[in-house]
């Protein structure tokens, strides 16, 4: 297992390199001048030139890229042009907010998706199955931002059950965190819960048709034991694959949801950085986020061996 982890980590380095190159190229194609944005509307051309020189933006692009990679080797991702903070510090201050929101959304996704998929498989071609699949299709069809707007209008403005925006840290007030995170988490979870429900249903149906399931039932085992111990246990590997994708989508989907609900996470931070052409923040933030997603996928791969010892890894 240790050798596999080392090979996977080494294999992730080219991915991070490609992501940083693409990000660097794309951010420089966006119209606008970050020096002018920092200087303000009343700045003189001389002031803008001075800011551009101080930030190194007057250097050729290859020189800027080489300097960034040189600093990266020393663990320095640069300083945010607008915040004036080191990129690592600014990202790490906001990353726990995104991770907490994603974890809440993941719990909702698992509860809704797994339960709906299992019930639909056990009650195939009944009203339970049809209702679960209608819910799944509804969840897949509704974009997170549209669902979020609907909940803000209904639950926040009309009924006043939940706050329409803002964020309270869990360590400061657990109930306040729950109130401010529920609507954003549902916005993220519903789409992915529908996806998980459909995949869980199809996987469970395939497993329930296997001979060993019929043998277990013929031995007189309780239906709960057959479903939970034999069927669901053997369906977990393809479901785990989907969970790795779901976690990645939860983190990447936070960009829209955090902006919509004014949540100070890494998604909102990157959105503001892109709008203001904050080169170091965009490059460093995306690099850290990509590294996190790669680690998640590596963790999912390692879960295969824990769930099924028969799974063999031969060279990655």
List the helices and strands and how they pair.
Elements: H1 2-27, H2 34-39, H3 45-54, H4 61-73, H5 87-122, H6 127-141, H7 144-158, H8 174-208, H9 211-218, H10 223-260, H11 266-275, H12 279-307
Helix pairs in contact: 1-12, 5-6, 5-8, 5-10, 5-12, 6-8, 7-8, 7-10, 8-10, 9-10, 10-11, 10-12, 11-12
Order of secondary-structure elements: HHHHHHHHHHHH
- Round the Cα radius of gyration to an integer and report it: 24 Å
Mean pLDDT: 81
Q: Tell me the span between the first and last alpha carbons.
A: 10 Å
Strand content: under 5%
In the CATH hierarchy, the third-tier topology of the largest domain is known as MetI-like fold
Distinct helical segment count: 12
Description:
- The chain has 316 residues and is mostly helical.
- It folds into 2 domains: 32-76, no CATH class; 90-307, MetI-like fold (Orthogonal Bundle), CATH 1.10.3720.10.
- The protein contains 12 helices and no strands.
- α5 packs antiparallel against α10 (223-260), α5 (87-122) packs parallel to α12 (279-307) and α10 packs parallel to α11 (266-275).
- The longest helix has 38 residues, at 223-260.
């Amino acid at each position: 297992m240790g050798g596999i982890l080392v090979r996977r980590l080494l294999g992730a380095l080219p991915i991070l390199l490609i992501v940083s190159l693409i990000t660097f190229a794309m951010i420089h194609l966006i119209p606008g001048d970050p020096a002018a944005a920092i200087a303000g509307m009343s700045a003189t051309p001389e002031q803008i030139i001075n800011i551009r020189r101080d930030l190194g933006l007057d250097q050729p692009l290859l020189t800027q890229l080489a300097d960034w990679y040189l600093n990266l080797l020393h663990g320095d991702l640069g300083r945010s042009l607008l915040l004036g903070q080191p990129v690592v510090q600014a990202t790490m201050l906001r990353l726990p907010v995104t991770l907490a929101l994603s974890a809440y959304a993941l719990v909702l996704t698992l509860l809704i998706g797994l339960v709906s998929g299992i019930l639909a498989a056990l009650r195939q071609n009944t009203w339970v199955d049809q209702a679960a699949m209608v819910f799944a299709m509804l969840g897949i069809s509704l974009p997170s931002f549209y669902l979020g707007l609907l909940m803000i209008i209904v639950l926040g403005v009309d009924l006043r059950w939940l706050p329409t925006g803002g964020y309270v840290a869990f360590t400061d007030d657990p109930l306040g965190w729950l109130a401010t995170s529920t609507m954003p988490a549902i916005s993220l979870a519903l789409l992915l819960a529908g996806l998980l429900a459909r995949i869980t249903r199809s996987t469970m149906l395939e497993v329930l048709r296997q001979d060993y399931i019929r043998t277990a039932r013929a031995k007189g085992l309780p239906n709960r034991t057959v479903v939970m111990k034999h069927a669901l246990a053997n369906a977990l590997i393809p479901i785990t694959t989907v969970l790795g994708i779901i976690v990645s989508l939860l983190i990447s989907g936070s960009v829209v949801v955090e902006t919509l609900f004014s949540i100070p996470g890494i998604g909102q931070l990157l959105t503001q950085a892109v709008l203001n052409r904050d080169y170091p923040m965009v490059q460093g933030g995306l690099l850290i986020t990509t590294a996190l997603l790669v680690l998640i996928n590596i963790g999912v791969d390692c879960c295969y061996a824990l769930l099924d010892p028969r799974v063999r890894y031969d060279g990655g």
